[in-house]
Write a structure and sequence with these properties.
Keywords: Electron transport, FAD, Flavoprotein, Transport. Helix 3 crosses helix 4. This protein is globular. The strands form four sheets. A seven-stranded parallel β-sheet has the order 7-11-6-1-4-5-12, with helices on both faces. By secondary structure, the chain is an alpha/beta fold. Strand 8 and strand 9 form a beta hairpin. Bound molecules: flavin-adenine dinucleotide (FAD).
Length: about 325
């Protein structure tokens, strides 16, 4: 049986986040040949609709309202519930982002529906879908099926390959008018920390530093390497606690979860709480002067050495390749 599946697109500063396109690919699998309807919520989002269609959405429904300019659970859930009531879908896919982690359980509870969160893969056999998700801080994976009712899932960024973009695709774009009321919180202003460069959660290359980096200045070579490879800088909690960098860079159980193509860990011991945030990276390179460091147990390539010697050598070599 084909299904109608909604996908919540996420935009930041006027651009759609990659996870929106990954969620469309997941929705296509669940729809099994049925219809994938993208939902865009915000104060001015209609201009983003065509990109969702180019990535595979069959049509787009927008809800535009001044109260949707910034995310609030109340505002977004009212808007999304209005679309759900209109569309009556058999599935809804979210990104497993800060927004998706907040909104998806709220919608699941309103619909009394099953939600599989943090999905890294979907195995499909016709109409039967098995969702794969990490458990025990990434030490194992479980496979979950939703037997009855509407399927809700949130997909971990960087795990499901988006469909190829096709700008010639076309689809209907319609607007739903929703009266957003009774907001318990109104966001007056968002002041973002200035982070130059690539978003850590979606970066294809992450260069992470730990307590072994020893100081704020010690992160400089890591930033240079990240810039060179078009990646983002991350950190262990050890480095954040030592005030070498901001907590927004923390990766791990109580930080961000990243799944880049390349993760370089420099001066990080590999505590289980850190591995929880990065062990699903495609290629892991560890640089540590202690050959017994636990990080080498998850690394594909290990370099036993002083990061202050190894990182500049890597920068030199990558520059040669690029020139
Ligand atoms: P250390 O363990 O001190 O390791 C530093 C490493 O650097 C060592 O292996 C050392 O050999 C190496 N080194 C030193 N100098 C050099 C050099 N010049 N060149 C190369 N290598 C060098 N941690 C996280 O990262 N993320 C989390 O989300 C997180 N959540 C937590 C939640 C809880 C509830 C708890 C209890 C802990 C959590 N932690 C988390 C902390 C975690 O247990 C570790 O303490 C932390 O990851 C250690 O950080 P580190 O590897 O940078 O430091």
């Amino acid at each position: 049986m084909t299904k109608k599946v909604l996908v919540l697109g996420e935009a930041r500063e006027g651009s759609l986040r990659n996870v929106s396109f990954e969620a469309i690919a997941a929705a296509k699998t669940i729809a099994n040949g049925g219809e994938v309807v993208a939902v865009l919520l915000g104060d001015a989002v209609a201009s983003l609709a065509q990109e969702m269609i180019a990535y595979g959405a069959d049509r787009v429904v927008t809800v535009e309202h001044p109260h949707l300019k910034q995310y609030t659970s109340d505002g977004y859930s009212q808007a999304l519930m209005a679309v759900i009531e209109q569309e009556n879908p058999e599935g809804i896919v979210f990104g497993h982002t800060a927004l998706g982690k907040d909104l998806s359980p709220k919608i699941a509870s309103k619909l009394k529906a099953g939600l599989v969160s943090d999905v890294t893969a979907i195995e499909s056999n016709g109409d039967e879908h098995t969702f794969v998700r990490p458990i025990y801080s990434g030490k194992a994976f479980e496979k979950v099926q939703i037997k009855d009712g509407i399927h809700l899932a949130s997909v971990r960024p960087n795990n499901i390959t988006p469909l190829e973009k096709d700008d010639s695709r076309s689809g209907d774009v319609s607007a739903v008018s929703v009266d957003i009321t009774n907001l318990r919180t109104i966001v007056k202003e968002v002041v973002r920390k200035s982070t130059d460069g690539v978003d850590l959660s979606e970066a294809k290359v992450v260069i992470a530093g730990g307590r072994g980096v020893k100081s704020e200045e010690g992160f400089e070579p890591l930033k240079q390497l990240a810039d060179l490879l078009g990646g983002a800088v991350g950190a262990s909690r050890g480095a954040c606690d030592a005030e070498y960098c901001d907590y927004s860079l923390q990766i791990g159980q109580t930080g961000k979860v990243v799944t880049p193509d390349l993760y370089i860990a420099a001066g990080i011991s590999g505590a289980i709480q850190h591995l929880a945030g990065m062990s699903n990276s495609k290629i892991i390179v560890a640089i540590n002067k202690d050959p017994e460091a636990n990080i080498f147990n998850v690394a594909d390539y290990g370099i036993v050495g002083d990061l202050f010697e190894v990182v500049p050598l890597l920068i030199e070599e990558f520059k040669k390749i690029q020139n």
